[in-house]
């Protein structure tokens, strides 16, 4: 029993309480408009990318000398979950993945530690290694993307315009950073003929030295006079390609201009950098990221306003296109959820008005906005934005928060019907139910503890569900004991029907059924247990799922060519895809990323790093139905047109990024053996009809030319391997020799051979190599050529070579079903493997298991809190056992609802089931408390159980019906549907069991017997 009666205090300080109501409403309205808007809740991508380059090294050398050394150091990283790396010739990329339990501060501290420790061991890396570099902004989301195409303008002219636009957009409030997409760096090529240089007797290194010496920036001193300081500047720096073309050399006793012996031209990086295309046209993109806690709706409006001004000033021929706009998605989502919220409010109010009457219904109608008005400021203080999870939580909380107000209002009505005064009736609920309601509220909140404290990315993603529900339920209790009694005293009137009038038909029917169940108590208990066991047996029939696909209209089209493919081949493939997409009536617009994956335009995107052989298109359909039609068309097109490529078409994911839904990781020390095992795994996977597009993240070696140098012959000629490699690199790829400072850009000057001398293996054999003596010799005089094979890249996990077998799923099959069906065959294969080799399930199933494990790890804390609260309230082990025995019975309704609706049991549905335990326990606690109150008045156990259950029938059923009907607006949604159906079915069944099974169990436990006169009365009824 709580010492101070808050309801009595509220009635004695009416003016103050009314003032508090007004302040709450005003504060709530202000906070509602100030709350940040976003699509998904912020969660930290606990991954850092560490990259290093060792130009000229082979894959094997890079892996052993760079990747291995870095990984050994990185394995000491605090909170490390696993390392994942891929090594290409001369390039190492390592993903440092931290455990899901790492907090935001721990993640930040860990990245600092990684930088420091890797910096300390940098000196142990081979000479010539560039880096390592670090990227811990892997999770930045660029929700607004503009693409700029041009007609009649050069790439440089377009880039100048886009750079100016970028500078203006950086001044817009809430913009944190802007990335440039698809911009190609300018290069000035100095292309020469090796034969011509040899004929003229010009030393290539002397030519390059002259370029570097003239263009260098050096201080020339400062003259200090009595009145001023005068700096000296020496001319000669290059400002254009013409300056380079005009430079003169002394060769053979005469002066030669560079343009006479070489072709000097301005072009773009060769091979190209990752490209960006919009609706089939080359483009430069601006990807805009919002600051943390910003309002995406306000940002979108501000960006559009500025872009309208910018577009008006753009010359004809430069066209901006809005490629991605998260503000539109969020506006639509918030609009839909606000509609759902209003529908839920309307449903709950309708239930209240119909069942309680106009005046009591009005109290519930006022309690809802009062509660929400207080919830919004608390959300603002806690920095919880309005996004997918928090909005859904508001609807779930809405169905729960009317419980206390209904209980208070019903108790007040009951007291008024007994002839009590308004003040006495309004304070009665606090005296009899306040602590039971508080205990029930805390138990309900405890049911959401696994949501709030699950140490995983999925738990972090859904944290605001726990936070918002907890805030709303606590606020609803205070509203029920402070505001509702005052409203009741003002609005309610004594019911016309007196307490001794004949009860209603539903009431009589329930009392008769309860009496029958209690008479056949062992049968009632047995049937309840049988239904529970049947639901457990039916549990495996429910399909499993991690997170569902998004209902956004985008499709991601991934295309991986053979891993030795050039970016030119990938660009050609992109153009073929563009031709297919052009004119399709189901498409609104699309954008393509060539040589890289899409930038993170929404938080759960599985971002792909740059690779020449990879492209990704983001195709925006006109609606979800068009998306499904387009999905089928693109699947067919890619299978027919790109049979040698790995292609994937998929809608956007919800929840933490996963990638291919079905994955098996094959790991072991020997790469050849790993490949053999992976092929066996792939054969097993491809044999199952639910899996399709089976592929590998790496597998096939590529071709290379090895230049075998006769070292003895080379030394006789005065050559070294370093000198030969330098000559080859200059001729084939080109060597940056200096830079032109052009406005805000630094333009590399690259010396290389002419095109015809760079692309032919035949001309490579006769390549003239300069000797120290000044003459030249052909390369084939001291070197031979042979073809060899090498893996273009190698993936490793925790320093062990790992090859991942990947697959998509066919039709409506779920990844969990595929993995479950393949499990026996995979286990049989694993038994035949040596101890150092292993096959591990990855993808959606692994991430789901990790997330569920993080939830289950917190269940003991949930149970401890629940049991503690219940024990404080009940102070009896038998009564505690009765409450606990009712809670799991909700699973009967959960299984039935999911089976009938066809919804899967996913991560969000599991959270709903856990939350359901608290909801059921709350009703059970209040009912047990009512039975004990009846017994305290001198009634026997049987009579007390029947009377208490009868008096609690209306508020418990009203709360349950309100909650179930209040879930209807979100039941059809993709994300919340499984949870809604789980709660609706579970709560409905559990409510019936609470009102029937619990009093029956109470009587069975405490040995209550029906009185003879009561038996006769019930028989007459």
UniProtKB/TrEMBL annotation:
Domain of life: Bacteria
InterPro entries hit by this protein: AcrB_DN_DC_subdom, Acrflvin-R
Record's keyword terms, sorted: Membrane, Transmembrane, Transmembrane helix
UniProt xrefs under PANTHER family: ACRB_ACRD_ACRF FAMILY PROTEIN (PTHR32063:SF64), PTHR32063
Species, as recorded: Bradyrhizobium neotropicale
Protein name (Swiss-Prot/TrEMBL): ACR family transporter
Gene3D superfamilies documented for this protein: Multidrug efflux transporter AcrB pore domain, Multidrug efflux transporter AcrB pore domain like, Multidrug efflux transporter AcrB TolC docking domain, DN and DC subdomains, Multidrug efflux transporter AcrB transmembrane domain
Membrane-spanning segments: 16-35, 337-356, 362-382, 434-455, 461-492, 522-542, 853-873, 880-900, 906-929, 956-975, 981-1005
UniProt GO MF annotations: xenobiotic transmembrane transporter activity
GO cellular component: plasma membrane
